Amino acid sequence: MSAGTATRRPLVLDLDTGIDDALALTVALGSPEVELVAVTCTYGNVTVDTAVRNTRALLALLGHPEVPVYRGADRPLGAGAPFLPSAPVRRIHGENGVGDVDLPEPAAADAPDAAAFLEGLGSDVLYVPTGPLTNLARALGANPSLVTSLQRVTFMGGALALPGNVTPCAEANVANDPEAADAVLRSGLPTRMIGLDVTHQVVLTREDTAAWRALGTPAARALADMTDHYIVTYEANNPLMGGCALHDPLAVMAAVDPSLVGCLPANLRVDLEGPTRGRTVCDPDRLRDARKTCEVALTVDAPRFLRAFRERVRCALLAE
Ligand code: CA
Predict the structure, then answer these.
(1) Residue 318 located in a structural domain
(2) Annotated catalytic, 229?
(3) What is the model's pLDDT at position 320?
């Protein structure tokens, strides 16, 4: 696949760089329709500082050390202390967030603050958050004009018709900062929710990681090793799945090609109180509004996504 001379849309990823964020980064670099112009980091799968380190290390490994990396929020809105990932999350993503695979140490550099960068995000940029929505909520709070100037924001998070994966109601990214997700979903900003409803329908197997390993490059081996770590945890927690869910990569691909998913237009909010805290749900106060701000993905063309994902990851791994 050629990048061609057609205009490549600028893409900014917002990552809490664990394993599926690493896969999202890789598929973005292998996608000819977009040019990754920056990564903003957040906490979630790891601390924000580990997310910055992992992102830099992966970008260098994948041959793109020039992509700027910004340091975003280190904690949820209103939290009194920096966020630390829980023991179950450290098992899923490894203590270092990338399946305990040793990545080459990235060049030391200061990571500029993500806030000013995001507040000035241009209207031509595709912005795809795949962690808690804290950075976006803060940017919308500081610059409300982003609600009308930003393109539709495709984010990984939430669940509408499936149970959560942290509690029976809450998906991890939303659970990590329900207030931020609620602020974004009720802001009026056009969004596209890539939640568990669709990400659990796209599964990567050990056959895929074996194919990457056979490519023989350091990046391919690292990606295969960390993804096998991820698959092991899925085999323990979701034995019927047969592999690991491709949460964050589906969000990137659905931003690049929205026809991959079928969506329900809806106005959503997030439950903030009681046992359903963190649940993404239709907002009764805006149920009859003619304008629906969120496209909630409920169906996905899994075979077409998986073909595109495999092709693009292979391109990125061979281009290092
Ligand atoms: Ca993520």
Answers:
(1) no
(2) no
(3) 57
